[in-house]
Structure formats: structure tokens, C-alpha cells
Amino acid sequence: MFYYQEVPYPPDQGLFKGHAVWSGDINGKDASITLHEVQPTFNGTYICQVANPPDAHGNTGETVLRVVNKVSLSEIGLLAAIVGGSCGVILVLLSIFVAVRFYRRRQKERFAEMEIDEYIKKEPTVW
Fold this sequence. Notes:
By secondary structure, the chain is of the alpha+beta class. Helices cover about 40% and strands about 20% of the residues. The strands form 3 sheets. A two-stranded antiparallel ribbon has the order 1-2. A two-stranded antiparallel sheet has the order 3-4. The chain has a two-stranded antiparallel sheet with strand order 5-6. β1 and β2 form a beta hairpin. The longest helix is centred in the last third of the chain and has 50 residues, at about 75-120. It is found in: Membrane. Its main location: membrane. It is a single-pass type I membrane protein.
């Protein structure tokens, strides 16, 4: 809780101690606070409600703040490198597999042609 009653009373305990600072202007109807040095442990959703105690039953101003951990560019790059590298390795292995099958099939065809040629040479009656 952050109280303002003629002077700001920032939180003296809890998660926002030392981080929440009054930055509003009561004369300008501005009840802003600023959070400094936001930590990853602040991750979550917070609701800021502004109420004037004599008018507690009237309209309450409300702002929602969502604090999320932002993924750094290096983490995204690392993930992309891992996924891209994995796809590359799979494509290389697949290419090798296809090339070996093609080579073996070609060798079998050549071997079969050689056997036929040798058979024809041995058997002059076959044409």
C-alpha cells in the first residue's frame, strides 16, 4: 500500500520497499507512483486503485500493471540456433541416406548389366 495524506508515505515493508516513489501532483489530480529498479521477482499482475477516503463510495480510479520477464535477444538467438542446427543436421543425414541408397541401386544395376554381358559372351547362342 502506498498512502498519500498531504505527504507521500511509501511502503516501508514488503516487495516494493525502496522501489515505489511518489511522482504525482495532487493539485493536478495526478496520483502517479513510479517503480524503480524493477526486479524479475516482481513478475505478476498488480492493480493500483486510487480512492479519496471521504469519497470511498464514489468512483475508484484503477490501473492494471503486468510485470513480465522479457526474453533477451541472446536467448532467442540461442533457441533459433538450436532449432536451425537440428534441422540442418537432419537434412544432412537425410541427404546422406538418399545418396547411399541411390549409389547402391546404381551399383546393383551396373552389376546386373555386367553379369548379362558376361553371360552373353559365354553363350554365343543368346542374342
